[in-house]
Fold this sequence. Notes:
Among the domains are: 15-78, 3-Layer(aba) Sandwich (MutS, DNA mismatch repair protein, domain I); 171-227, DNA polymerase, domain 1 (Orthogonal Bundle), CATH 1.10.150; 244-345, DNA polymerase, Y-family, little finger domain (Dna Ligase, domain 1), CATH 3.30.1490.100. By secondary structure, it is of the alpha+beta class. It is 38% helix and 23% strand. The protein has helices at 15-23, 48-51, 61-67, 78-95, 121-136, 148-157, 168-177, 188-196, 202-205, 210-217, 220-227, 258-279, 311-323; strands at residues 7-12, 32-34, 45-46, 72-74, 98-103, 106-110, 140-145, 163-165, 244-255, 281-292, 297-308, 333-345. Helix 12 (258-279) runs antiparallel to helix 13 (311-323). The longest helix is centred in the C-terminal third of the chain and has 22 residues, at 258-279. The protein binds magnesium ion. Magnesium ion binds at residues 11-12, 15, 105-106.
Amino acid sequence: MPELRKIIHVDMDAFYASVEQRDFPELRGKPxxxxxxxxxxxxxxxxxxxxxxxxxxxxxxxxxxxxxxGLIFVPARFDVYRSVSRQxxxxxxxxxxxxxPLSLDEAYLDVTESLVxxxxxxxxxxxxxxxILQETGLTASAGVSYNKFLAKVGSDFRKPDGMTVIRxxxxxxxxxxxxxxxxxxxxxxxxxxxxxxxxxxxADLRLFEEEELVRRFGKAGSYYYxxxxxxxxRPVRPHRGRKSLGAERTFESNVMxxxxxxxxxxxxxxxxxxxxxxxQLGGHTVTLKIKTDDFQISTRQTAxxxxxxxxxxxxxxxxxxxxxxxxxxTRPVRLLGITLSNLRSLAQxxxxxxLKLDLGH
Length: 361
Ligand SMILES: [Mg+2]
């Protein structure tokens, strides 16, 4: 029998909203929605006080304000969230050789071979949560188990500021009692369909053959068949097979002037470089996206044999893309975006070399 893995899923509690409550004490204990103050906006995150009223992320601001009359909208500060995220990842890096970030506030850790010898996975999770709290002032929840599915379910189980350990011998009983809507990968629509078919818990799911679950729920049926038996072999993958990484900006007023456009590109390039740095990735393909005032979107792309990852290299390439044939945009620009694709790990690749541009001019 192969050795059981030790997987931890760590999830910051109401992350953006908690950062705002940390930094602005007047928001503590109050229903807070991050983002979405404009009429057509969407809530990016909600504090637990707001969740009591049913406010959720991705909800329209109008619906959120209606659900929770005293709701306080605060603007998102992604630079701050990213820097806290870096602190959190630095904590992970003390213990886990393999970390797969799912977003700024959530990651899987494989600690089968811990970086600190002699610690159980449970002890590692306990220390990680304590160090995150000490260093960022924020709480995180964790799930500890032998695969991703159970670790993820575990981190959600006693949220906020909770931890759940699911040992192999406890897994089947745990899943049996678990409502299907708590299964990661079962969305609200699927949960409703399952309920309509009398499937309410993991134990109910286990009554079906794989073919039957596939017939009823499509390809995901195979996944449900396995996870309701506590089986999930997905590895913790540090780069998650990410295909591209980028950033874009919509301008408050349209921009026509080329020097002004280049100035805007500087800011976007810096953002993309920061994200690449965070993910420890570089890219071989750079794409510039241009949206003009008539809402036409065009893209211009260049590939290089060198791994592009820092701000200067990105800026140099997109500057050329902007000015190169067919020339600078002839209409006012609403939006610029930069995307890097064909990504490679900075750690694994050869050291980045001096960039040589070949755009055929
Ligand atoms: Mg979270």
